[in-house]
Amino acid sequence: MRVGIYLRVSTNDRGQTVETQRLPLVEYCAASGHTIVGEWSDEAGATNLKARTGWRAMLEAASQRKFDLLLVHRLDRAFRSVPEAASTLERLRGWSIGFRSLQESWIDTTSPFGEALYYITAAYASLERGILRERVKAGMDRARKQGVHVGRPQALNGNLDSLRPAIEAGTLSRRQAAKRLGVTVSTVSRSLSRKGGPNRGQETRAAAGLAEAH
Fold first, then answer.
1. Is 10 known to be catalytic?
2. Which end of the chain has the lower number of beta carbons within 10 A, N or C?
């Protein structure tokens, strides 16, 4: 069987090289009697399709049916998401090219059973991501109900300039001002800095004052 192998390491994979993936793939092909007719590799993140020139070149060769089987070391070396995996495998199927993962031996579209297992695995992974999203959403909703701000700092809900003298005098803390304005303390601090907040002496006095600790 003519085999094309694809290798990828991310820029975050410290100390790893594509050679770590290549050696076991070559050994597997030799033991199975397959011939490697093409090899493509990338050193880029899975989502950085612009930098994944090797991946694009592999797909081009696949469209010309220059190999019969695409072999990867692990599923996540090839695909960035479940939808992309399903879409790409459909394209490979249209070109009469199989897909096999060395580390996940059940992912082998050259057999009906292996193909079924792949789609079950993909569906489970998609379900797991959906459950995670729902948990995150539930946590954010709970935080909002408890009065905790979620997401980017809000715009000022009031006039900061009217509170500036009290803040500069140290009689009103930034935390108290943030509560009155309905925003976070960091939002108040950034707004004061942009508009020319209190001078260094006033900042020091306010920071040391009892009001700032409230």
1. yes
2. C
